[in-house]
Write a structure and sequence with these properties.
By secondary structure, this protein is an all-alpha fold. It has three helices and no strands. Pathway: Energy metabolism; oxidative phosphorylation.
Length: 87
């Protein structure tokens, strides 16, 4: 393998890579404007619920975990501040 063959091979690699990436980018559709329309609609829903049923489930799960953690923390704070009985 001579030096000129190696140089020719190395220059074709970037062209192949750029061609592969440029063809995949052209095939993908930009979904951002469609998603913006959904979130900018004035339908009376808060923004954290506008995404659909998955957002509602994630919101409820998050609120349940938050409330359970707050209640658990308050329970142990009250338990810790009560004096222990001397039996």
């Amino acid at each position: 393998m001579c030096l000129s063959e190696s140089t020719q091979h190395n220059t074709s690699v970037p062209r192949l890579a750029s061609k592969a990436f440029s063809t995949t980018v052209r095939q993908m559709k930009n979904k951002v404007p469609d998603r913006q329309k959904v979130f900018l609609e004035d339908n009376g829903l808060p923004v954290h619920i506008k995404g659909g049923s998955t957002d509602v489930l994630l919101y409820r799960l998050t609120m349940t975990i938050t409330l359970a953690g707050t209640g658990f923390s308050c329970y142990w704070l009250l338990f810790a501040c009560m004096p222990k009985s001397k039996a």
